[in-house]
Specification:
The protein has 63 residues and is of the alpha+beta class. Helix content is 33%, strand content 13%. The termini are far apart.
């Protein structure tokens, strides 16, 4: 009997994602990260990505 287990890999370093909550949603789908450091580096490397634009809008217009 085989079980299909989907393992998420970090969009930056390809390590296994063991902690949920570090993710960004963009035009190409959801990017998952293994830690806050990888998420932050991704945002620094890709400052003009749609995910970062949405985060900037949320920071400027808090609910």
């Amino acid at each position: 009997m085989s079980t299909d287990v989907h393992i998420e890999l970090c969009a930056l370093c390809s390590q296994k994602v063991e902690i949920k909550g570090f993710s960004l949603v963009g035009n190409s789908g959801v990017h998952h990260f293994c830690c806050g450091g990888c998420l932050s580096i991704f945002q620094l490397l890709y400052p003009d990505s749609p995910q970062n634009q949405q985060l900037k809008q949320n920071e400027e217009n808090p609910k």
